[in-house]
Specification:
single chain; mainly alpha; Growth Hormone, Chain: A; 80% helix
Length: 401
C-alpha cells in the first residue's frame, strides 16, 4: 500500500477515535450545575482522563515493539467505546464520572501513540516527519470535532446522548483500521534486546529526552487550555455581551481545527530552520500570549476570540514537531518504548495541568473572578515556559557531550 494511503487511513481513524475526547470539557458547565461540582472536582474529572491515559501507556505501548501494534490499537478502541458508553448510561456524580472518564482516557492512551506506531511500522525509512505531523494533526481535528458535536448534541439532547453518540467514533475507527490496514508481525531484528518495561535505554537517549521534556510542557498547556477554555469563553462573553455554552464549544472547535494548519506549518519551519530552535520560539511566544488572554476579559468578545485563536495556533505549532523529533531520535528497536516515555511524560503533565487550573480558580475566587482567570492562564502558560527551559538545558548538555 502506498505511504500516502496509509497516512490517510490512519489519519481518518485517529480523528474518528477522538469523538469523545472533549465531551467532558465541552459539557463541563451543565455537568457542574447538575452534580454540584466545584472547580477542583471538575479539574479532577478532567485530569483523571489523562491519569487513565498514562497508566495505559505505561502498560500497553511498550509491547508495540514486540507484537503487532494493530492488535493493541483495535483492542484499545473498544476500551474507549466502553468508557464513553458507561459515562452516558451510568455516570451520576463525581466518583462515577471519575471512573468512566479514566476508562475512556485509558482507551485513548492505548490508541494515540499506538496508532502512530501502526503508521510508522508501515512507512519506509527514513521516517518522513511530514507523515508524522499529519497524523498528530489529526488529534486537533478530532478534538475540534469532539468539541463541536458534543457541545451541540448536549445542548439539543442532553449530555448522556452526547457521550453515547461519541462512543460510535472509536467503533468506526476500529472498522476503518480492521478493514484497510493489514496485519504485520514484528520482525526479530526489530525487537529490543531489553525487557519490555526497561525504560532506561530511552531515558539515556538525551536527544529524544529533550523532545520528551518539551512535550511534557506542551501537554500541560494544551490540555489545561482545552479543559477550561469553554468555561473561560462563557465568562469572557458574559463580561461583554454573552456567549452560551454551545457557542463557546463551537468556538473552541473551530480554533482546534484551525490549529491543524499551525501544526503542519510548524513542522515545515522546523525542517527549514531547526526543530529545537523553532519549537522553543513557539513555546516562549505561547507563554506571552497566555498572559494576554488572562487579562482579556472585559475587552470586546471578538478580540478575546482572536487572541484565543492566536494562542491555540502557537500551542499547536510545536505539537507535531515534538512528536516527530522524539520518534526520529528513537534508537533502533526502541521506537515503541520511546513513544511510551514520550506519552508518559506528556500526559502525566496533561493530567496535572487541568487539575492545577481548577485548584487555582477555587483558591483565587472562582470562575466569576477576573483575577482567578488571569492566574489560571498564567498557570496554563507556565507549561510552555517550562518546556522551553527543559529543551534548552538538554540541548546544552548535548552540545557539551
Amino acid at each position: 500500500m502506498p505511504p500516502t494511503s496509509i497516512i490517510t487511513i490512519m489519519f481518518a481513524a485517529h480523528v474518528a477515535s477522538m469523538t469523545g475526547f472533549a465531551a467532558f470539557p465541552a459539557l463541563l458547565l451543565p455537568l457542574q450545575a447538575e452534580w454540584n461540582l466545584d472547580n477542583t472536582q471538575a479539574g479532577w474529572i478532567g485530569g483523571i482522563y489523562f491519569a487513565g491515559y498514562v497508566l495505559a501507556v505505561a502498560i500497553i505501548v511498550p509491547w508495540t515493539d514486540r507484537i503487532d501494534s494493530r492488535r493493541i490499537y483495535l483492542a484499545c478502541l473498544m476500551l474507549s467505546a466502553i468508557g464513553l458508553t458507561g459515562f452516558a448510561m451510568l455516570a451520576d456524580g463525581f466518583w462515577s464520572a471519575m471512573t468512566w472518564n479514566a476508562i475512556q482516557g485509558a482507551g485513548v492512551g492505548g490508541t494515540y501513540m499506538t496508532g502512530l506506531k501502526v503508521l510508522t511500522d508501515r512507512l519506509p525509512s527514513p521516517l518522513p516527519s511530514r507523515g508524522i505531523a499529519i497524523y498528530t494533526a489529526g488529534f486537533s481535528v478530532g478534538v475540534g470535532t469532539s468539541f463541536a458535536m458534543n457541545g451541540v448534541i448536549g445542548a439539543l439532547l442532553g449530555w448522556p446522548w452526547a457521550f453515547g453518540i461519541a462512543a460510535l467514533g472509536p467503533l468506526a475507527a476500529a472498522f476503518i483500521v480492521g478493514v484497510c490496514i493489514s496485519k504485520r508481525a514484528t520482525l526479530p531484528e526489530e525487537r529490543p534486546p531489553t525487557r519490555a518495561f526497561d525504560f532506561r535505554p530511552v531515558l539515556r537517549n538525551r536527544r529524544a529526552m529533550g523532545y520528551v521534556l518539551g512535550y511534557a510542557g506542551h501537554s500541560w498547556e494544551l490540555f489545561a487550555l482545552r479543559g477550561w477554555i469553554v468555561a473561560f469563553l462563557v465568562f469572557a462573553g458574559e463580561k461583554s455581551g454573552g456567549a452560551a455554552n454551545a457557542e463557546a464549544a463551537l468556538i473552541a472547535a473551530v480554533a482546534n481545527l484551525a490549529a491543524v494548519a499551525a501544526s503542519l506549518i510548524g513542522n515545515e519551519l522546523c525542517e527549514l530552520y531547526g526543530r529545537r530552535r523553532i519549537t522553543r520560539i513557539a513555546m516562549l511566544a505561547s507563554f506571552a500570549v497566555a498572559l494576554l488572554i488572562g487579562i482579556s476579559p472585559g475587552l470586546p468578545f471578538p478580540v478575546v476570540v482572536i487572541l484565543f485563536f492566536v494562542y491555540s495556533g502557537l500551542v499547536m505549532g510545536d505539537s507535531g514537531s515534538l512528536t516527530a523529533g522524539a520518534t526520529q531520535s528513537a534508537a533502533p528497536g526502541y521506537r515503541g518504548l520511546t513513544l511510551a516515555v514520550h506519552s508518559l511524560f506528556g500526559f502525566a503533565a496533561g493530567f496535572l495541568g487541568p487539575l492545577a487550573v481548577g485548584l487555582i480558580l477555587d483558591a483565587a475566587g472562582g470562575q466569576a473572578s477576573s483575577t482567578a482567570w488571569f492566574l489560571g492562564f498564567t498557570t496554563i502558560g507556565l507549561g510552555s515556559l517550562a518546556g522551553a527551559v527543559g529543551m534548552s538545558i538538554v540541548g546544552r548538555q548535548l552540545r557539551n557531550a
